[in-house]
Amino acid sequence: MSLRGVGRLARYDDVMQALREVSDPEMPVVSIVDLGIVERVAIEDDRVVVDLLPTFTGCPAVGMMARAAEARIRALPWVREARAALRLEPVWSSERINERGRLALRSLGVAPPGPVAVCPYCGSRHTRVTAAFGPTRCRMACYCDECRNPFEQMKAV
Amino acid sequence: MIGKGLGLGQRAALREYILTLADDELVLGHRDSEWCAFAPLIEEDVAFASIAQDEMAHAALLYGLLEEDEAERDALAFGRDGRGMRSAVLLERPNGDWAYSLVRHHVYDIADDLRTGDLLESKEPLLRAAAERMRREERYHLAHGRSWLSVLAAGGACSRERLERAVDAVAADSYDLLRPLAWEGALVAAGALPRAPSRLWDRFVERVGAEVCAPLGLAFHPPTHAPRGREGEHSAAMDDLLRTMSEVYRSDPRAVW
After folding, report:
1. Is the pTM of this model over 0.90?
2. Do A58 and B136 touch (CB under 8 A)?
3. How far is CA B241 from the centre of its chain?
4. Quick check: A5 contacting B, CB < 8 Å?
5. B38 membership: H or E segment, kind and range
6. Can you list the residues of chain A whose pLDDT is less than 50?
7. Cα(A64)–Cα(A52) distance, rounded to whole angstroms?
8. Closest by alpha carbon to B101, among B21, B40, B179?
9. What is the predicted pLDDT for the residue at A4?
10. Is A44 helix (H, G, I), strand (E, B) or coil?
């Protein structure tokens, strides 16, 4: 398909929409946009380059997310070339997760990173960290003293 | 790539330094991983395995600063023999008991904390970013070590005796971590580091004394005739470690994963 009729802004929106459909395979409802992993989108005619920031060092999901992002963008009708580049700078921090990402984490039973692990089930702040190293390297194991559910919190880094 | 714009000698020094950082993380990460399924508690099994994974991930990140190509990176990590490894001998020692593994890891983490703290002032942007990235995860390791040390210190006579033995054994090998090396000056001249790593020695001794030994009523007096792992002089334990760690790699170095 030619680029005719697909304006610059429309192309940018297309790419962002495509990236919103790419998620961390461990946390399927949280998009890489909301996790703050997408640092930059560069579009030149029908070529797209996105810069992604790895979260935790050596996270096995990062490569999968990069390939999924490329495939998803390449599927846009006007795109001929798509590349996802991993960049070390700026350094990703859990503060890059936006409000929508925090809500999505809660819906998975994972408390968003922060000084207090707010229970994702009942909203109580009467919680404690039971193990600082949880099922994946980015999560801690917690317990809610109010509703007595175990849950996880994403680590603040 | 790293070291752009530096002269040949300075680039070689930078490569040596990044190798020492990466080899330290890889070798200790491997030893820590040997605790998997043997740690004293199931939660600790998960925790120590995660810590081991973190250290290996840091090694991968650092080797990645030297080699962009994945096969070259693997060759760097798994293709060298003991003479080529730049890690400190302390880190290749067999795990011994839990007290030794824990004290060793924590004392190493203190040295690493000082080292990566200096890297935040590096004029090499990628090295600075890597240090910042790693330090965010190391915070959890330091907290883990501190809490276990206080648990073991309150654990009765047997626990106490093992801790004392561990501190002595770790002290005997510690100087290797921050011994002055020939290429240090070039790193400072290149702006890669604000000061030579060996200049951190006094601060290291002070911190291990205050954070590890003082709460136990012990003193930290590391001798300066420790081994010279950074110069490739390793113990027999290193050969065993490398044989196990690189077994899969050596079975087919060209394999694509």
Report:
1. yes
2. no
3. 15
4. no
5. none
6. none
7. 12
8. B40
9. 61
10. strand
ipTM over 0.95: no
Burial class (CB in 10 A: 0-12, 13-18, 19+), B223: exposed
Distance separating alpha carbons of residues B238 and A23, to the nearest angstrom? 41
Residues of A in contact with B43 (CB under 8 A): 130-131, 133, 141
Give me the pLDDT at residue A1, please.
Answer: 53
Whether A91 and B58 lie within 8 Å, measured CB to CB? no
Contact state of B61 with A137 under an 8 Å Cβ cutoff: no
Q: Which of 3.40.190.10, 3.30.300.130, 3.40.50.2300, 3.40.50.880 would CATH assign to domain A3-94?
A: 3.30.300.130
Between chain A and chain B, how many beta carbons pairs sit less than 8 Å apart?
60
Tokens of B56: 């290996």
**CA pair distance A37, A24, nearest whole angstrom:** 10
Judge contact between B76 and B86, C-beta under 8 A: no
CB-closest option in A91, A132, A137 to B143: A132
Report which DSSP code applies to A91.
Answer: P
Nearest to B180, CA basis, from B166, B196, B191? B196
Instruction: For chain B, say whether A88 makes contact (Cβ under 8 Å).
Output: yes
Task: Tell me which chain A residue has its CA closest to the CA of residue B62.
Answer: A57
Query: Does the distance separating the beta carbons of B57 and A135 come in below 8 Å?
Result: no
Element housing B109 (H / E): helix B98-119
**Model confidence over B153-187: pLDDT tens digits?**
999 999 999 999 999 999 999 999 999 999 999 99
Amino acid in position B239: D
Tallying the residues shown for chain A, one arrives at 157
B221/chain A closest Cα distance in angstroms: 32
| Residue B169 touches partner A, C-beta closer than 8 Å | no
Q: Across the interface, do A57 and B132 touch by the CB < 8 Å criterion?
A: no
Instruction: Please spell the DSSP secondary structure of B39-54, one letter per residue.
Output: SSSHHHHHHHHHHHHH
Q: What is the largest CA-CA distance in chain B?
A: 58
Question: B231, B85 in Cβ contact below 8 A?
Answer: no
**DSSP SS3 for B182:** coil
For chain B, which residues score pLDDT lower than 50?
A: none
Return the beta strands (E) in chain B as ranges: none
The CATH 3.30.300.130 portion of chain A extends over 3-94
User: Look-up: residue for tokens 């998975």?
Assistant: A108
B22 burial type by CB count under 10 A (0-12 exposed, 13-18 middle, 19+ buried) = buried
